[in-house]
Amino acid sequence: MSNPDSYFNRTEVSNSDLTELKNYLYPRAQYGDKEKAFKFGTLVDALITENERVRYDKRMVDNVVYSGEDFELGLAMRDALRREARRDPFLAQVLAKSDTQRFMVNKKQIFQYGNFEYTLDTRCKWDWWLPDFGFGGDLKTTFAESQAQFNEAMDFFDWDRSRAWYMDIAGSEQDFIYAISKKNCKIFKHFITDRSHPSYIRGKEKYEDLAFKWWQLMV
Predict the structure, then answer these.
(1) What is the DSSP letter of 130?
(2) Which residues of the chain fall below pLDDT 50?
(3) CA 131, CA 219: separation in Å to the nearest integer?
């Protein structure tokens, strides 16, 4: 997309909207600096999936300037993912063949809450979408230093909810996450192999609860 802001100006319900609703309904102590984390995540996303947005000579993404330390870390994380792709044939295919930052809209998506049925207009934006295979996945940055810590982060940050949300908007049967550690540049992976996978089931339960609350409050 040429205008990175256009997606966020849309009116359909996104997983980020559900996150904001959850934070409003169930406030908890913030985990680190949210704005700083979002800004750095934008840098890493751009370095890996939207290189045309990056001004390497000025350490900028769009009109945002990054510190030398953050920019160098972002480059190191990008390079770590590229090295991993030499050992991981699937990741190599993802980096070579994905549509990046592709958004999808599902008008009047049907939801069920108990026996009650309702609809919402929904949207999502894929870091990676594999059109040849009909599924996609997500790129994350994380403070986790081990796979076990990453698994805990998945539940804490509701990444399982986002994957189920994306899968149901697209109608896809599989999904994946690749995460890069900000601490040691290790690569962590998580694959949802089908809709019976525990991460899909748990994520769907999470989003169904919040989507119904959204419908009650906003529609």
Answers:
(1) E
(2) 1-4
(3) 33
